[in-house]
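Side project, low priority. Logging it here so it doesn't get lost.
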Amino acid sequence: MKYVAFFRGLNVGGKNIVKMADLRRLFTGLGFLDVQTYIQSGNVVFTSETEQCLLIPAIEQAFEKQFGFSSAVVIRSGDEIKNIIGSLPFSAAEIERAQNENPDVEHVYIYLFNDTIDIEKVDHICASYGGKDKYHIINRDLYLLCFQSVRDSKLAAMLMKFPQPSTSRNVKTMKKISMMM
């Protein structure tokens, strides 16, 4: 089965530097096939017959042993990636309004979790937010629409406080990964 592993916090701000060639070698060494990476943020597409739930601990342990630090990993299958992209909860008009406000940045992000998201906790954390940005939860994924850079989004900053391990990617990256799968 085709999978993608999303690593959290690689090659961000000069920290946790990992060359993608080294990451591909790690995955190949674990016995995975058809290993490809996409951009420097730690997106690895691969084939494996191992069950999805067993992949995460094996990859995280091998990664820490190889690189000397830990990084949370979120796994999705090819079908899950297609569903994530097909389930975008924001209308074309909403996305266009955000793009018109700031055409130089990405506006739609997907936060990926390994476990079901505690909607009540997210709602509680974000309850004081009163801006334009919006979020929507579907299964293990949280969709965020920003009207400015995600780095300047107060809602995105609030979501970073959520205790469940996650990682995020913009929709453009998700679409590219889907095409790779």
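Brief comment: The first strand starts at residue 2 and ends at 7.
Revisit when time allows.
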